[in-house]
Structures are given as C-alpha cells and as structure tokens.
Amino acid sequence: MSRGGGRGHTRVKTSRGRTPQSNRWLERQLNDPYVKRAKAEGYRSRAVYKLLELDEKFDFLKGSKRVIDLGIAPGGWTQLVRKRLPKAAVVGIDLLPVDPIDGATILQMDFMDDAAPDRLVEELGGAPDLILSDMAANTVGHAQTDALRTLGLVEAALDFAIRTLAPGGDFVAKVFAGGADSALVAEMKRNFTTVKHAKPPASRKGSVEWFVVAQGFKGRTEEVPE
Ligand SMILES: C[S@@+](CC[C@H](N)C(=O)[O-])C[C@H]1O[C@@H](n2cnc3c(N)ncnc32)[C@H](O)[C@@H]1O
C-alpha cells in the first residue's frame, strides 16, 4: 500500500493473488469517508449511513417499538436501531452468520424459506411497526438479472410487510433502479399512505441501488389468502 494520488489518498499496489477488481474495491474502501466514519463510530458497516440519512429525511425510526431487519449482516442497521431505540424489540435475519448485537435477536436463515415469516414475528413477540430490508441478491454482473433477483426479494419483503405490519407501520427497502417496477409501487400505494423513492448520499453514485420508503400502513382490510 502506498500514499499517493493526492493528500490522504491511499493507493493499493497490485500484488500477486489480488485481481485488479479486488484491488479497486480495496482502494475504494480505504479512501471512502463513510468507511472511515463507520470505523470511528463503532459501526460494522458503511451501510448504516444510508439508514441514518433516510431516517433524517423520512423520520421512520422515532416511536418504533418492534423492528425487523431483513438482510441484517454484518449488523450496522440494527446497531443504529438499537442505539436510537434502546427499548424496541429488534429481530434480524440473514443467510450469513452475524456476531451478537446486544438486545437484538438474530436468525441465520433464508428469508425466502417458508418458515421465516412466522419465525420472525414469533421472535419479535407481536406485530412489527417497522420493517427494514437491505437485502440484495448476490450479483452476477448482468444488470437485468441482478435487478430481477433483488426484485424477487423486495416483493417477498413487501408481501411480508402487508401480512404482518401493525396499522400505521412503515416499510423501507432497497431496490434496484431498474427493479422498483410499477406493479410493486402500485401495490405499495394501495397499502401505504405515502410511498417515496430516495437515494441517500451514502449510497454510491455508481451503484444502481435506490430505496423505497412506504409509510403509514393502512392495515389489512380483507383477509389475505394463505
Ligand atoms: C447489504 S447487506 C446488509 C447490510 C446491513 N444493512 C448492515 O448495515 O450491516 C445485504 C444482506 O442481505 C442478505 N441476504 C440476501 N438474500 C437474503 C435472503 N434470501 N435471506 C436472508 N438474507 C439475505 C445478504 O446475505 C447480505 O448480508
């Protein structure tokens, strides 16, 4: 590693065993102000600042008592939720193992598993009033395929939100620009008072990631078929 390319900019020398792609990733990580800030403030991910900035704009954390974090690993979002809402119950789920977070219950399982929705609500001890989803499918590098795979996760998360949220609850989810399709937005608008898209400053400009924030769940007016 060497200093160069401007004040404070860390350059990463190509070394054997590191591909140019992983080199670029490492260089970007080392020079990213959000990565530095996360380290300094004790957060496990730079992703935490996306949630923080979204909350600054939409104010969905305040007053939440039961929170679900879909795609919790490594845990930055839940760390922030616990800090802001020390009394709230928080349950997270991820395919990957996550180091314990004080006051949060973490399930290591696939959210797409049929048993996952019931397990989440059971662990939470009641209806959630805030459902967060930062889930993204592993990218394969083909933009359309990646968008579709993440769309599948968002659809499942929205379905879960509509089935379980307490009236007045909020749903915040990562979507891909090409992925927040009109049917999904229409479904959100049917079920929530306001639906907004946002790209927080912490979301890298080059990434196609966006977030959708649906607030004020209208409640289940009719039984959702099993
Ligand atoms: C961008 S990361 C989440 C970062 C997190 N918000 C934070 O602040 O630390 C997305 C996560 O979604 C998880 N994920 C993707 N598909 C999933 C699925 N089907 N079930 C559970 N987790 C999933 C991935 O394993 C990954 O850890």
Short description:
With 226 residues, this protein is of the alpha/beta class. 36% of the residues lie in helices and 21% in strands.
- Largest sheet properties: 7 strands, mixed
Sheet with the most strands: spatial strand order: 5-4-3-6-7-9-8
Topology pattern, helix = H, strand = E = EEHHHEHEEHEHEHEE
**Helical/strand content category:** alpha/beta
CATH C-level category of the largest domain: Alpha Beta
Shape: globular
Distance linking N and C termini: 56 Å
Helical content band: 25-40%
Low-confidence stretches: 1-5
Q: Please give the radius of gyration in angstroms.
A: 18 Å
Q: Based on the structure given, which CATH architecture of the largest domain is correct? A: 3-Layer(aba) Sandwich
Task: Describe this structure as you would to a colleague.
This protein has helices at residues 20-31, 33-41, 48-58, 76-84, 116-124, 143-164, 182-191, and strands at residues 2-3, 10-11, 66-70, 89-94, 104-108, 130-133, 170-176, 192-198, 209-217. By secondary structure, it is α/β, with parallel strands linked by helices. Strands 5-4-3-6-7-9-8 form a seven-stranded mixed beta sheet, with helices on both faces. Strands 1-2 form a two-stranded antiparallel ribbon. The termini are far apart. Helix 3 crosses helix 4. It contains seven helices and nine strands. It folds into two domains: 2-31, no CATH class; 45-217, Vaccinia Virus protein VP39 (Rossmann fold), CATH 3.40.50. Mean pLDDT is 89; it is low at 1-5. S-adenosylmethionine (SAM) binds at residues 44-45, 47-48, 71, 73-77, 93-96, 110-112, 134-137, 153.
